[in-house]
Amino acid sequence: MSEYNLYHMDDKGKKVDLSDKQEDLAEEAIERSADKMDEYVKMAEEEYMDKIYPRDFDEYIVDGAILTCDQAIGDECGYDEKGFAMQSSGKTTVLHVTGESYAKACGYLYHATVKDRKLGVNIKPFLCNCRIGAHTPEEKARVAEDKLCQTEGNCRALINLNDDWDNLPSSESYFLYWNEENRQVFSGITMSSILFCKHGGIITAETSGQEARIYTAIGDIDWYVYNLRMIRRIKRIDPKFNDLIKQFKEAYEKNKSRYVSLAKQMDIPPELLAVIHYRENSDDYMKGGFNVYLHNGDPLGQPTVSVPYNKLFYDFDKAALDAISEKADAINKFAITYDTQDMAALLCFLETYNGRGYYLNNRINPYLYSGTNIYVSGKYTSDHHYDPNEVDNQAGCYILLDALFE
């Protein structure tokens, strides 16, 4: 096997040595492959990595893999030239791969190739600050001009991806997979592959994406994994919501029998139904009124004036059944039933119910995460108008569901 000898030029013309990182990744791969290596008792680790590793399907990265960068700063904040603290909400992003059906792994997920590195298509900027920061006048100008850097970190203005991923050197060729954009096959990439960011970061896979195959039928695996990762980053609930959560739980207990009865007809969790009711009209929920449309919170007995328009019901239960039936595809997509407590699946459904604008634009969704440490600010104040400084003061769906699932 060739010695590790990988170099790239960064965006300032400096030669960066990535050989040590490749060696570290190879050692991690050896640890993961320990059981498989037992089958090759006469083979040294170096020989295994050279001849067998490139043929190990389990190591290959697929659509939905979680990526991390060694220069991503999590909870710490960077500063722009005016001294404004830029918020940072995470150190990972999701790899998105598109391709033809015959390029899917075991018929489930699209394999990634060395060409799956296009910013905004395959890889969205990390919601973080870059440890290296902005140094040149051009870099500082980009950070200053992009106002979202103040709430989503400066990575979005500094990220500069290399043309290809790099695999570990090997005498055995890597599997070839279809790349949709280039309309030809390229080498697949593995858990030991590197994508160099010319600003100085080294991007690698934290997960292969294959562990989430159970959800691949939904066609939105990156969306599910995104919310799964967001949940794992929640460390704190804002104490200002403590009293509200207590009142929310008390209101649920008072009307639990009605939510349970209705949820059984819908085959969805009663807690999910209660959270939707609260988010659509918190006043009606807290009073136990059941006098509004579950669709949008408008009052019953007259045609709806909010989306969806011109619905007419006089009974909460009948209106609720209609509202949930309109989302039957999402319910089936995430395999939601009365007993479901998969928080990521439920949040994806709730995001479908309310709209996917935040996710599709790579923004933290306050409808889901308000009240947690991962949401700081940013809100759509009207259709298609996003204000990065606006703060949603309502309790998000996560902390409400979590309270009822305790």
Describe this structure in words.
It is elongated and about 75 Å long. The strands form seven sheets. The protein has a four-stranded antiparallel β-sheet with strand order 7-3-14-13, with helices on one face. Strands 1-2 form a two-stranded antiparallel ribbon. It has a two-stranded antiparallel ribbon with strand order 4-10. The chain is an alpha+beta fold and 406 residues long.
Task: Report mean pLDDT, rounded to a whole number.
Answer: 85
Strand tally: 16
- Overall geometry comes to elongated
Amount of beta strand: 5-15%
Give the helix tally.
Answer: 17
- Gyration radius (Cα, Å) is 24 Å
Main-sheet strand order equals 7-3-14-13
Distance between the termini: 53 Å
Largest sheet: 4 strands, antiparallel
Secondary-structure topology with pairs:
Layout: E1 7-9, E2 15-17, H1 19-32, H2 34-37, H3 45-51, E3 66-69, E4 72-73, E5 78-79, E6 85-86, E7 92-94, E8 104-105, E9 109-110, E10 129-130, H4 137-145, H5 149-152, H6 155-158, E11 176-179, E12 184-187, E13 195-196, E14 202-205, H7 221-232, H8 242-254, H9 256-266, H10 270-280, H11 282-287, H12 316-325, H13 328-333, H14 343-354, H15 357-360, H16 366-369, E15 379-382, E16 385-387, H17 397-405
Antiparallel strand pairs: 1-2, 3-7, 3-14, 4-10, 5-6, 8-9, 11-12, 13-14, 15-16
Helix pairs in contact: 7-14, 8-17, 9-10, 10-17
